[in-house]
Amino acid sequence: MDGHERPDVVEYCDKIFLPAMENYEWCMAQYNGENLDQKEPNLQPGEKRIIAQFHDESCFHANEFKKSAWLETGATVLQNKSRGWLIHVSDFINEEDGQLIHQNIQGDIIIIIYPGAAGDPWWDTKQLLGQI
């Protein structure tokens, strides 16, 4: 369990976060139908459109892979004995542009670190703020 399923987190999402997001939907583009056709919000003069940015993090090990593979008859997958380096990925996305980009940096702002005893420091708020 990574914490997203904890009762206090679920309660916060259901009672605070999702109702707050619903209050902003009127000023966000909507994407409808099979082709996800974009419908712009009906804004009054002085009102601004909102593009929600969402943050996601994921951790996995370098040697994680599926248990099945296409191989010649009698061949086996050469497996490493360890799970390998821990890889931590942090990124921002939105439904309009995909990954968040920075106007002064070519490409997206995804951050990949390799935390652990002999690697990078563990992900923290300081690194998150540096990313944005």
Automatic annotation (TrEMBL):
<protein>
    <submittedName>
        <fullName>Uncharacterized protein</fullName>
    </submittedName>
</protein>
